[in-house]
Structure formats: C-alpha cells, structure tokens
Amino acid sequence: MSEEEEEGRVLTESSSFPHDGPVPRSIKAVQMGLMATLRSKKTKATIGVMVTASHNPEEDNGVKLIDPMGEMVTPMWECYATQLANAEQDDLLTALKDIIEKTAIDMSQEANVFVGKDTRSSSARLSQAVLDGVTSLGGHSKDYGLVTTPQLHYMVCCQNTQGKYGEATLEGYYNKLCQAFIQLTRNASNCTDDQKHLCVDGANGIGALKVREMESRLKNELQISLFNDGSKGKLNHQCGADFVKVQQKPPTGVVINPGERCCSFDGDADRIVYYYLDSEGQFHMLDGDKIATLISTFLKELLTQAGLDLKIAVVQTAYANGSSTHYLENKMKVIVRCTKTGVKHLHHAAQEFDIGVYFEANGHGTVLFSKTAEEKIQQLTQDTNANDESKRAALLLQNTVNVINQTVGDAISDMLLIEAILAIKGMTVQQWDAIYRDLPNRQLKVKVSDRRVIDTTDAERRAVSPEGLQEAIDSLVKKHKQARSFVRPSGTEDVVRVYAEAETQESADALAHEVSLAVYRLAGGVGDEPKPLH
Ligand SMILES: CC(=O)N[C@H]1[C@@H](OP(=O)(O)O)O[C@H](CO)[C@@H](O)[C@@H]1O
Ligand SMILES: [Mg+2]
Questions:
Q1: 109 CA distance to ligand 1 centroid (A)?
Q2: Which residue in the list 54, 123, 264, 507 is annotated as catalytic?
Q3: Coil, strand or helix: which one is 335?
Q4: How confident is the model over 293-324, as pLDDT tens digits?
Q5: Cα torsion angle, 46, 346, 130, 120, sign
Q6: Which residues' Cβ are closer than 6 Å to ligand 1?
Q7: Does the ipTM surpass 0.90?
Q8: Which domains does the chain have, with CATH numbers?
C-alpha cells in the first residue's frame, strides 16, 4: 500500500463522493454498506456507518466507517474501502471476493451494522442505500436516523463493550453526559449566573438539533442561545467551526455582544471552536490548542490535588500554534507530542499515556484515559482514608471521565467539559484567552502538478523532497523573528499547504508568501506565481 493510499481519506472527514462521476452516488453508499458488513464479520463486532460530509458544503456527501471501539477504521481497511468504492458496477463482485479472500472472512459469521445520518438533503437516500448494502450480504442493521458523528461512535462503542461504556441509545448518551456535567458544576460556587450563558452556532446542521434535544437535561446549569439551528440558513454556509477557524471571523447569523462566550460546531458536530468579541469589537478565537491547554491544565491540577501519579500528555500536530506548545512544555511542564495531521494519528499517540489530551488546531479532539487511570481514579473516590481535598479531586476527575466521549472528538461533549471547567474555575473567556498569546500565523495553498513530489519527515515539519526545498525554507525562516514554517501535501485536497507563524502578522504573511514561492519554484507550481498578501 502506498503512502498516498494509506493517507487516502475516502472515509474520513472530508470524504465526499464525486458529484459528476460515472457511478451514481447511491451505488457507492451500497458499497459502504457491503464494506461495513464485511468488517463486522471479520471483527465479530458491530461496525458503524455515518452518512455525512462534515464541514463541507451541503451538496457534498460521504460516509465515515466506525470500528468496534468507536475508532476510525484501520488504514488497511480504508484501503479496501477505497478499492470497493472505486470499483465499477461490473467489477464489484470481483472486488468483493478479493477482499473476502485477502482478509480470510468467514461469511457464515453474523454481521451487525449501526447506521446514522446528518441533515444533508441527500443523506436519507444514501443511508437507505447503506442499509440495503448491509441487507444484501445478510447483515443485521440498526438505523439510528439523525445523529451526530460522535453519537454514532458512542453507540458502536457501547454496543461492543456490552454496555460498560454506557447504554447504546441517545437517551443513554444524554443522561451520561448531562449527569456528569451537573455533578461537575454542582459546587461551582465561583460561577455567576451570567457565566452560565453560552451562544452556540449549530452550523445549520445535526449538532443544532441535538443541542435542542439535550438542553432541558442541563437543568439551567448551562443556558444556551442556539443560532444557525437549520430553520433558515444553509448547512456550513458562512457558519460553523471550519468557517470561523479558517476565516478568523464570527459566523453570520449570530448576534454577539462584546465579551459574550460563543462556540461553533461543524456540520457533523465533531469539531468545536470558541470565540468572543472584545469591547472594541475585535474578534478573538480559542481554537483546539487553547482548548487542549485549558483541559490539560485542569486535569494536571486535579491530579496534583488527588495525589495521583498519572502520566499526562498533550498531542498536537505541526499546525498547533508555537505559543501553545511553548506554554505547555515550559510553563505547564506537560509532555507534548507532535504527530502527522489527521485525527487517527493523534488518537493513536494519545493512547500511549495514562491521560492523553489530543486536539487538532481546527477543534477536533478529545481526552483518552487508560484503564489504569480510570481504575486509580475510581479507587480514590472510594478510599475512606483519603483526605477531603484528594477525594474532591478524584470525584471531579471521575465526572470528567464521564462527560468526555473518548471514542472520538465530540463538539457536544467537549462543550460540556469546557463549560464545566470554566464554571469550576470561575474563569471568563477573556481569562482563558489570556493564558498565552497566539503567534500570528498564516496558512496558504499552492497548486502544483503533482503534490506527491513533496515528501516530509519529523511529523511533517520538515520536507525531504524536492531537493533544496527545506534549505530554502530554513533560510527564509531565519529572516523573521520567532518564526516557524513548514509545507506538506494535503491529504484531502489537491494542493500543497503552507504554514507560517512569526512575531507579527506582517512577518507571518511575508514568510508564508516567500515559502509559497519556494514551493511553486521547486515543486512544480502550476498557474500564476503566488502573489504577496499585501
Ligand atoms: C490544516 C488542516 O486543517 N487540515 C485538515 C484537513 O487535512 P489536510 O490533509 O490538511 O487536507 O482535513 C483533515 C480531515 O478533516 C483534518 O484532520 C486536518 O486537520
Ligand atoms: Mg466534522
């Protein structure tokens, strides 16, 4: 399997079926139903299929396959799925047989597939096609209908752990998360009524529907003003987490008062970013890096108070703002790991620690607790010899474990955790923002004739090919203060991504442009030469 195939994101976040390809979209969805059924037979466990194209436009659609523990499918199976999705109708049987043979599947084994869908107009038809695919191979299916991606991950994990992780129903999901949230905030005496208010931009998608469904269970401990609830606007159009992060501005459709805390979900509610406007109307964003900092600081303090010796780490990608990495390593003294882009890499790295907090800068992330960590926390809550401080900390840790959806980044669960932390600490969004100052940064895209000519190492932070590119980047970076820059081929778009950060915005913009020019000249740029930003 080539690197390209391994990174082939056919089934990940931005997976979308081609709009104008020769194969009708529903045929591909049938194939994903077949695929999930095979995977279920192979793993002897329930598999999930979520019909969504996440933060992409309403017109796009795709599927995400969910493995038994609620994780994303393995790269090898992503590869098989790609083969099946690309097979023309006449070759479908051969492709199927090939996979069955290669993976030695016992076709007499039962199969179980959970199916969910987002609010896109094409989702109902596509999810029906997935269900048909499952049935055609004799698999059993359960249609959860409209759910967020993380909710379906949760159901799959609950089902495969015989209820140990929770009950595989929406009711079970809301009860677990909301009860934990209420327990966490119950004694948050530092929290004023004003601070219990949050504006949520639902991206006109499934997240909005689900926030509505959950709201009453929060018993006014959190008062949500929901915007972009799908009643008028278009999914992800000028709103949602991706728009806010990339455009660095508030979404349309939200009325924001200065100082008010706001957050945006993406189209399938697996990403979240926070922001506010200051008294001068200036926009401030609190992205995945700030979220990871808030959560890891909170957990580290609780571990100290509880007297628990558990290893905590934060996992980031090269896109994490340099200020966040510096703050975490030097001020917070937590271990920081950097992985390649893509949540499966972060998830995997986070599993190596007792507590692994992972977030992409774009707001996708969660916290993983090892079995040992969960057991030690649980024991301490019941330890009659423990002093009040450590017992209180242990209880807070236990409720934190319960409010988190460990299967995947989850906007609803992350929101509840962040809100609980702010309430417990009596912290305003401005105080949270002030933990460290983001270094100004800029992301650009360069079109090249073949982006595979760029090969990287060191978690994508250095280019090993084409020759001379890294040397060029190194000497450009030296011309700017507090600067850092890297380039990598996108796994989801046919472009090379350029990232630069530096002491000032002008400097970051200039560096990003200079590096883009180097990519254009050394890596076979197409079209016009990149122009300066100013
Ligand atoms: C810079 C950036 O935001 N890259 C995104 C984007 O990947 P690229 O490989 O950069 O196209 O899509 C991925 C899937 O949604 C997401 O995990 C990742 O964070
Ligand atoms: Mg998403």
A1: 36
A2: 54
A3: strand
A4: 999 999 999 999 999 999 999 999 999 999 99
A5: positive
A6: 9, 12-14, 319, 341-343, 360, 362, 490-493, 497
A7: yes
A8: 3-146 (3.40.120.10), 172-284 (3.40.120.10), 288-411 (3.40.120.10), 441-522 (3.30.310.50)
